[in-house]
Here is the input.
Amino acid sequence: MSVRFTPVRTENREESMGKSIAAEIRELQDMTVPELQARYRELFGEETRSHHKQQLFRKLAWRVQELAEGGLSERAKARAREIANEADIRVQPPREFMNGAPSATRVRDERLPVPGTLIEREYKGRVVSVRVLDKGFEYEGRTYRSLSAVAREVTGTNWIGMLFFGLARHREKRGGN
Here is the structure.
């Protein structure tokens, strides 16, 4: 699928942009990816890792205009740096966000039996026994944070621990009964 940038063809637009800039942008449209990568090297002074034609085209069209008409003002660049430095970026939400309660007061999953209970399940001819702890589960002398981790250890594949140990049921149909 070929996506093509078509500049607005009004006299004012092309005059304000400059005939040579508009012509250079039109030339970029017809270039192959290797040609765009070579032009990127010329305009940015470094290699690109991108092989995406449209992305390369957009970056190059922006760079052509920036070189001809000037880029962001120093004030705008300074403000952008300010915003980036002030950003308190989280990669993951806090634990209490997902559970609705702080970790210290987290409510125990009501599907789980009380601590000390043994959960048993037969798997491939052997009985798998897991002891429910206050915080986690014990299987073969090791402590695991979740039943899913125990199920993964037993089977070697990812499982929903509650399903594997029969503490929850799969829904018959999505959105259904």
Summary: The radius of gyration is 30 Å. Residues 53-69 form the longest helix (17 residues).
